[in-house]
Specification:
The chain is mainly β. The chain is about 0% helix and about 40% strand.
Length: about 375
């Protein structure tokens, strides 16, 4: 169990081991700071801008009728801002386990884009922050055709030139091998979106596994998901577009043959260069890898003793090439698990900076960011 200082305040872990004061260790590097979600919220999703300000969205309320809230925290601030409700229709948020949390992307001019869904009736909602006033625009349902078998939330991605993408999967739950991945793309900062289009290559999709999408810094659009080929080849699969979402290529990243959906999540984040970082679960272990660069694909597992199922991983890389991998370590799909983390150096070797904190709430997931100064922050 974590100490009281870890439960009720942020803790800094640095890249060496000389204790200075409670909760702080010095080093030759930069810290990993642990922050709690405000208001006792769960399922944090965040982005950080060039000024070091954290933009956070989280869920509060009843599972089938809760709300999403938005808060910020400046680089030199010690507290979160007063929360603002994201959804314009009260109670239109939904918490369908960790697989369907809201997702957030930071676009051009630091504009915030948020997606979430409601299962009954199935709707994929989207909103963006206002340009002329605090708060968010009226929520919109962006998906009208491909909503069969919706179990998980859509992912939202945005770049610095005004492109915004909504990516989701749908189809028969009884025939997962025929499910598909779909997308709608905006070229005007989310004001309007193009038509719904299928972007996968017919490998099927695990019905209850979450997907994740991101724009790389050179404008590539990526989506990471779990396939369901022949109902047993539930391999982690990467979709990539180099023409702003007009066409996609597909690559198998990691195999897992299992005759059932493992109810897992994937996360993909932009790297400091033009590549992306991928994190996923296979057989109860979490892995990280990088794509979109000239590097040979290297898949790295979280080291250390595996007490329970490792799940809901996320990896972020700082400008110097160090990677922070975070995940939950706990039994069953409902458990948020104990917050766990591992730092890898630029050569993908595990450093001594690793640890486990207190249990996260049920259905929650950890979030992680790399600050412009190279330090890391974890929100849980």
């Amino acid at each position: 169990m974590a100490s009281p200082s870890l439960k009720h305040a942020s803790m800094c872990l640095l890249f060496a081991a000389t204790l200075l004061s409670a909760g702080t260790i010095t080093a030759t590097g930069v810290p990993v700071e642990l922050l709690r979600v405000p208001q006792g919220g769960i399922q944090p999703q965040a982005a950080i801008d060039g000024y070091g300000t954290i933009h956070l969205v989280y869920f509060r309320g009843e599972p089938s009728g809760g709300n999403l809230f938005y808060a910020t925290r400046g680089a030199r601030e010690q507290h979160w801002s007063d929360p603002i409700r994201v959804n314009s229709e009260a109670g239109s948020g939904r918490r369908n386990g960790a697989i369907s949390h809201a997702q957030l992307a930071l676009g051009a001019n630091r504009r915030v884009h948020v997606s979430w869904f409601n299962m009954r009736p199935p709707k994929y909602f989207y909103t963006r922050s206002r340009e002329d006033a605090p708060g968010f625009e009226k929520q919109r349902n962006l998906v009208t055709d491909n909503v069969d078998g919706v179990e998980t939330g859509a992912s939202v991605a945005a770049d610095g030139s005004g492109s915004v993408a909504i990516v989701w999967h749908a189809g028969s739950i009884a025939a997962e091998d025929a499910r598909g991945v779909f997308a709608r793309v905006s070229r005007d900062h989310g004001l309007t979106f193009g038509p719904e289009s299928r972007i996968d290559d017919d490998r099927g999709v695990c019905a209850c596994c979450g997907l994740s999408a991101v724009f790389s810094r050179d404008g590539g659009l990526y989506a990471l998901y779990r396939a369901a080929t022949a109902l047993v080849h539930r391999d982690i699969t990467l979709l990539k577009s180099t023409d702003h979402g007009k066409s996609f290529s597909a690559d198998k990243i990691h195999e897992w043959n299992i005759g059932a959906c493992p109810v897992s999540t994937t996360r993909i984040t932009a790297g400091p260069g033009n590549g992306v970082l991928m994190a996923w679960e296979t057989k109860g272990q979490v892995f990280v890898s990088r794509a979109g660069t000239d590097e040979v694909l290297q898949i790295v597992a979280a080291p250390g003793e595996q007490r329970h199922r490792r799940k809901n991983p996320l990896a972020v890389m700082n400008p110097s090439g160090a990677t922070l991998l975070v995940w939950g370590d706990g039994p069953g799909w409902r458990s948020g698990g104990a917050l766990s983390w591992q730092v890898f150096d630029a050569d993908w070797k595990a450093t001594h900076i690793a640890g486990s904190a207190e249990e996260m709430p049920e259905y929650s997931v950890p979030e992680a960011l790399a600050r412009p100064d190279g330090s890391f922050v974890v929100i849980y």
